[in-house]
Amino acid sequence: MPKIYVDADACPVKDEIVRVAERHQIMVHLVSNSGMPGFHGHPLVIQTVVSDGADVADDWITEQIGAQDIVVTQDIPLADRCIKKDARAIRPNGKILDRHSIGISLATRDLMTDLRSAGEITRGPRAFAQQDRSNFLQALETEVQAAMRGI
After folding, report:
1. Whose CB among 61, 78, 91, 119 lies 3.0–4.6 Å from 95's, allowing a Cys bridge?
2. C-beta pairs of 144-151 under 8 Å, 24+ apart in sequence
3. Are the beta carbons of 136 and 93 closer than 8 angstroms?
4. pTM reported for the whole predicted model
5. From CA 4, how far away is CA 6, in angstroms rounded?
6. What DSSP string runs through 42-88?
7. Number of domains within the chain
8. pLDDT tens-digit profile of 96-136?
9. Nearest to 90 by CA among 34, 35, 144
10. What is the Cα gyration radius of the chain?
11. CATH number of the domain enclosing 138
């Protein structure tokens, strides 16, 4: 049975993740540097609070995740690490990252970092929208069903 791992500190779709998990009766691991209110005592949600520090939550998720599990993260390097372990990766906007798309995503991330450092780009990404939430729900449902079928 697949599990869902969530890089939870800044994740805007935690409630949606739990709804999909309830529908399929699969476990959700919310991993953060601080507790997440609203999920205490939920039978399908395990909250893991890791110590502060760069990549501590990422390292914990990477150590735990297995093939066919799903990670929800905005962090492209974390997604890459999980994909290398045959897990599935979804960004909160519904974009699925896989072996075919992760390379370009990493390259784009690095390019944007360089452009921001050089002062070429001064604004951040667009605001999270309702359409992103809808795209995410559809993508997560598709990935959960595929993981449960083992494909």
Report:
1. 91
2. 144/2, 144/4, 144/20, 144/24, 144/26, 144/70, 146/88, 147/2, 147/68, 147/69, 147/70, 147/88, 148/1, 148/2, 148/24, 148/26, 150/68
3. yes
4. 0.87
5. 6
6. -TTEEEEEPPSSTTHHHHHHHHH--TT-EEE-S-HHHHHHHHTTT-E
7. 1
8. 999 888 777 767 767 777 777 787 766 666 788 999 999 99
9. 144
10. 15
11. 3.40.50
Question: Edge-to-edge, what's the strand order for the sheet holding 45-49?
Answer: 45-49, 28-32, 4-7, 70-72, 88-90, 96-97
* CA distances in angstroms from 99 to 3, 148, 151, listed in the order given: 20, 19, 14
Domain extent, residue 94, equals 4-149
3-state secondary structure 94-140: CCEECCCCHHHHHHHHHHHHHHHHCCCCCCCCCCCCHHHHHHHHHHH
pLDDT in tens, 23-63: 999 999 999 988 778 888 899 999 999 998 878 999 999 99
Pairwise CA distance, residues 113 & 18, whole Å: 32
Which amino acid does the sequence have at 5? Answer: Y
35, 95 contact by CB (below 8 A): no
Residue type, 78: L
* Spatial separation of the C-alpha atoms in residues 69 and 1, rounded to whole Å: 8
